Amino acid sequence: MPLTQESELPEKYYQTIKPWFDENCEARFWTLKDGCEIHYRFVQHPEARGILVISSGRVESALKYSELIYDLYHEGYSIFIHDHRGQGQSSRECQNPHFGYIDSFEMYVDDFESMIDDVLLPKLSGAAASEDATPVVGLPLFLVCHSMGSAIGALLLKRRPQFFAKAVLCSPMFGITPPLPPWAAHALVYIGVRYNRLVRKKASYFFGQTDYAPSAFYKNRLMSSEVRYRIFRELYADMPRLQLGGVTFEWLHASLQGMAEIRAHAHKLTTPCKILYSGADTVVANKDIEQVVADMPNCESVCIPEAMHELFFEKDKFRKPALEKLLDYLAR
Q: What GO molecular function annotations does the UniProt record carry, in alphabetical order (predicted)?
């Protein structure tokens, strides 16, 4: 089945993709040891060539990925995706549910590892008590990540290098492009975190950050596909539970530490990997991506010229070649 095209999306999304997603992608919650409830979706292909484990970006949810999951399923893959803690339908970490917060990126990695070990693998083996599907034996697991999810995925690959057969990291967050010089941004983040600890405040927004407020399409830095952007914003308007605001000092502090660890230890990321990144990205720093690519021993990369940050939701002329390269790489 060919990949979904923008021209058919206005009707296909609501008449075909969303109903298929709601009916076929099992929706469950898993409670972690610390009490955090993680929302996940799983769809098992009857003739799967492999299992894709998706790690999404900041602000995102499994529901946002319905078009991508629909397309990849019809390419012959079973798919597992969860909402990271603090976003989507998973438990929020702060009293203000809009705060983009995490104490440490290792928490994301711990959660991801637990979701694989305690939820996905029992499903694939047929060991889950409520699992009726036929056990899947011998199929490869592939990691597919976007943006912040790529940083989380890279840290998981460092921890468990033999777990995935291959990984595809899209627009990876190995460095960000702050509006201030890096030294100034680091100093402000450090001061903000120390102040909040001093006054015993769990978190507060970084300067200029607010509760969820959707940007007009012409102002957005994510994608150049107007129809995909409109569907994304309509979904979040219809389900306010998915909405997430800006980043806190604490999230920035944790992300800077996580990205620094990836850059410093890229040579330890030995899992075969393909990195796709965008020529017109203004969210993550391409120079940091290129540094990590150069240091990873089994990595190849492709830059999609003129594309914006979210390749999985871009215009067809950017999304199609990105997904074709992803599929070709996994099929080798």
A: hydrolase activity
The dihedral formed by the CA atoms of 220, 225, 237 and 8, expressed in degrees to the nearest 10? 170
| Residue numbers of the domain that contains 282 | 6-331
267: how many CB neighbours lie within 10 A of its CB? Answer: 11
Q: Which of 238, 239, 246, 241 is nearest to 213 (CA)?
A: 246
Q: What is the Cα–Cα distance from 149 to 124, expressed in whole angstroms?
A: 23
| Residue pLDDT, tens place only, 256-266 | 999 999 999 99
Encoded tokens for 253: 């502090």
pLDDT of residue 130: 42
Banded pLDDT at 12 (limits 50, 70, 90): very high
Burial code of 69-102, b = ≥16 C-beta within 10 A, e = fewer?
A: bbbbbebbbbbbbbbbbbbbbbbbbeeebbbbbb
Residue 1: inside a domain, yes or no?
no
Compute φ and ψ for 83, nearest 5 degrees: -90, 125
Question: 308 in a domain, yes or no?
Answer: yes
| Whether pLDDT at 132 is above 50 | no
Pairing state between β 50-55 and 141-146: parallel
State how many domains the chain has: 1
CATH number at residue 156: 3.40.50.1820
